[in-house]
Inverse folding.
């Protein structure tokens, strides 16, 4: 892993509604990540700890973002990390709009005012081949108990609509469906209760991570699934364990708006980096 001349590596700690991230700025200090290094940094006792790690890289737009889960696997999308980094980059450049790229595709970001940041997560993937699922089927109601909805947002999602999201034992429920045979790349799992035509309560199990306080892509997927089922309109408030996101499925994509926090800056030491 490339680092400073003293073999240390600066990082930033950020979160969106308690969904927390370690962010490395490869534009300044080039980094080369391996699954083992990601896992080591993500350890909440022996490392720094995070739900996802994000790397800011030079790109054809304002920046390119690469995401890793806590288990060392890559993810094409991470909505809350994208919002956090977009806020950081807008403040850095003195801009109120940005054009970012990810493995998911191009993402537009803007200052939404009042300390909020909006990102366009793109159009949802609704065909079974795009999500992907292991075989052809109707993605609106999967042949799984509870008839969840499958949605792709650059990563796969499985959304269960339930009477009371609070009552679901997510620590057992989530891993049961994360590895379901219909999802060859595993899946994020959401349990959601529709409170009103523009209001959803949702909890999430993220693949490769576990229970998180919030998930941007999961919120987008849940809003899309609810609209497709006719349970809500296309613009909804979603209350997560960590707070509120506003989702708006427009003609140009799914916009997500919410707060961000840059918690602190730190430095990974030469001793730590040498061990991983």
């Amino acid at each position: 892993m490339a680092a400073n001349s003293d073999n240390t590596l600066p990082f930033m700690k950020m979160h969106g509604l308690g969904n927390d991230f370690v962010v490395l700025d490869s534009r300044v200090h080039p980094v080369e990540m391996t699954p083992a290094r990601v896992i080591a940094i993500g350890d909440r006792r022996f490392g720094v700890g995070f739900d996802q790690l994000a790397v800011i890289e030079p790109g054809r737009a304002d920046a390119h973002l690469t995401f890793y889960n806590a288990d060392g696997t890559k993810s094409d999308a991470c909505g809350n990390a994208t919002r956090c980094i977009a806020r950081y980059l807008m403040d850095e450049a003195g801009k109120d709009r940005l054009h970012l790229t990810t493995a998911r595709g191009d993402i537009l970001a803007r200052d939404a005012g009042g300390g909020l940041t909006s990102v366009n997560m793109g159009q949802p993937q609704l065909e079974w081949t795009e999500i992907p699922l292991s075989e052809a089927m109707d993605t609106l109601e999967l042949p799984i108990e509870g008839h969840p909805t499958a949605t792709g947002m650059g990563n796969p999602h499985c959304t269960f609509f339930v009477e009371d999201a609070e009552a679901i034992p997510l620590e057992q429920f989530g891993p049961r469906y994360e590895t379901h045979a219909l999802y060859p790349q595993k899946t994020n799992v959401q349990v959601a209760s529709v409170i009103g035509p523009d209001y959803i309560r949702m909890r999430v199990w993220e693949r490769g991570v576990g229970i998180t306080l919030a998930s941007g892509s999961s919120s987008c997927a849940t809003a899309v699934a609810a609209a497709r089922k006719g349970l809500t309109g296309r613009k909804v408030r979603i209350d997560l364990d960590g707070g509120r996101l506003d989702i708006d499925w427009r003609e140009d994509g799914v916009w997500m708006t919410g707060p961000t926090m840059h918690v602190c800056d730190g430095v990974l030491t030469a001793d730590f980096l040498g061990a991983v």
